[in-house]
Amino acid sequence: MYRLILGQRKILNSNITDRRVGAFIDKMNVTENRILEEFRRNAEENRVPIILRETEGLLKSLLRLKKPAQLLEIGTAVGYSACVFADTCGCRVTSIEADEAMADKAVRNIESLGFASHIRVLRGDGRDVLRRLHREESEVEDGKYDMVFIDAAKSHYREFWDLSLPLLKPDALIVCDNVLMKGMTASDEFDTRGRYKTSIRKMREFLDYITGLEYAKTAVLASGDGISVSIIERNR
Q1: Residue closest to 210 by CA, chosen among 149, 157, 167
Q2: Which residues touch 35 (CB under 8 Å, ≥6 apart)?
Q3: Beta pairing class for 216-221 and 119-123
Q4: d(Cα 59, Cα 82) in Å, to the nearest integer?
């Protein structure tokens, strides 16, 4: 019998599309793995932020197309997405989490669900851990990771992107979640109290940056809370 360690959060990510459309789509994105579906339902009931169902559906399609052997995740949270990745294509996942308490919960969840042999959780600020990985894996020819999933501090996406590049294999995939920030990236009108001006500015700058790169082909999609999918045609 497994026991999920969730904790509580006040904010649960929500789709940027009409809630009726989102509910219709969610009905078709039920997780095939019964234990992971229970994990999701428990997280949603306790208002713990995990990837949205719509986002999960898209990610699983990308995983099945790309078939990564090694995947790098920046932002573990309670470990749900890492378990989905490992379950979908059997890849090895290296996941980075800055919050010690959250990392503890993720490790216990990963062990409880039987994915400990596929997922390692590294603790610390994502930027520091990525620099450490550079040193540890500097002798790996042509990089190590086939795919990166960025879902951490939104104001640091540019740094996470740049620090991930040396770790990637040619033709790797970089996927970034929550890039539309509940619509705020598209319009200041969604930031009704003006509390997220800095984060909005940085996310807009990040999207301008990655869509203008010669070595990356990027699509920005209004799926879930906004997601960018970038094919790296050559390492910088």
Answers
A1: 157
A2: 2, 113
A3: unpaired
A4: 11
Rounded Cα distance between 26 and 44, Å, is 13
Locus of tokens 């940056």: 209
The one-letter code for the residue type at 148 is: V
φ/ψ (deg, to 5) at 120: -120, 135
Closest CA to 58 of 169, 149, 184: 149
Q: Are 31 and 56 in contact (CB under 8 A)?
A: yes
Series of mean pLDDT values for 10-residue runs along the chain (236 residues): 52 57 68 86 89 94 97 97 97 97 96 96 97 79 87 96 95 96 91 90 97 96 94 75
Q: For residues 70 and 144, what is the distance between their CA atoms, to the nearest angstrom? A: 7
Instruction: Tell if the pTM clears 0.85, that is, is over it.
Output: yes
Q: C-alpha angle with apex 187: 221 to 183, nearest 5 degrees? A: 45
